[in-house]
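Question (not urgent): is this output format expected?
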Amino acid sequence: MYIQMTDGVPPPPEQSSLDHRIDDLDRQKEIDDWLPITSSRNAKWWYSTFHNVTAMVGAGVLGLPYSMAQLGWGPGITVLILSWVITLYTLWQMVEMHEMVPGKRFDRYHELGQFAFGERLGLYIIVPQQIVVEVGVCIVYMVTGGQSLKKFHELVCQDCSPIRLSFFVMIFASSHFVLSHLPNFNSISGISLVAAIMSLSYSTIAWTATAAKGVQEDVQYGYKSGTPASTVLSFFTGLGGIAFAYAGHNVVLEIQATIPSTPNKPSKGPMWRGVVVAYVVVALCYFPVALVGYGVFGNAVLDNVLMSLETPVWAIAAANLFVVMHVIGSYQIFAMPVFDMVETFLVKKLNFKPSTILRFIVRNVYVALTMFIAIMIPFFGGLLAFFGGFAFAPTTYFLPCIMWLIIYKPKRFSLSWWTNWVCIVLGVILMILSSIGGLRQIIIQSKDYTFFS
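Got this back:
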């Protein structure tokens, strides 16, 4: 039936409703084109390689020899290998679940959680943990960047007056007050590539310089703690340090969201290719650093293996500078989903207009906040273990398995069913034990530290 429109005559209700829906869709598209995660979908498969390397290899690799010292040879090697295998499996699950519903992409971790657990419960389960992980990583990388800058300064200017760590954290943070205004993942791809190259470079320097130093004369491989209770708690801390080293899952869906996808060529193909290459690089970084570092220094190794090395000066100085360059990229990788969450909340829930001013304020406040906390509590080893257990273990080791069981419902007692339940049990144990160890480590280190000293 044709309805002629005349001046002064209101449109029919159906037409008004349609116009309203079109306006909503236009506004939604405008917001999606502005938000960091969904604004660009033209990434290549190798983008996922260096984004994942940058996200995963970082502060964690420098703490692996220290974790080995707390675990010992047998348990340490076992946990290292199991973690590599389990996290590669759960990462594959995340890549597969990104487009499991035809015509829909789960661009963010919490969107997948909402599909698996329900709209409200999914948010309550995923978002707090993801925020803890990503903000926690940014804080730890502030500490790492500051420590590495301080070490670099001490090595290249040995006659200079010492400068407090707090100032080096501020220097490191200054770069992020600029870089944080890059709009999306693809815009930081160049930074991520440089960071990935730096991670392989300083890891290679770390283990080769350690190997060149040779096994120390008085090296000891036994547990360093004096009492059985402290030995057990240190063991828990070591578990958390290794859990922290495998952290890329929290941003994997957001990375995959930048890859183009069609029904004939879904994004999971190029994404998985990039992940496999990234995991080979991860193995080349992690295993030599962990095994050689512990083998040379034994239980005397520091919680950042580069801090245990003094010679050759040029190589150790270069490695520390490479660490700074890498964690600059890593900070951006983990900050981008936080920016996306905050900006989404502001423009969708509070109806702020998407604008450069809004983005400028949000991102500067976030960088300042993480810098402030890093200056307050620079407990590198304890932070690694605590965050590794409290938040990384769930989002990396067993939440993907739980969602897989809920969504795909594999036959009970099948290989898939058993594999997922084994990962869940191991992940829960890791979460509980390493959180206890990490919290205890922070308490011990805080006894000798004055805030803002």
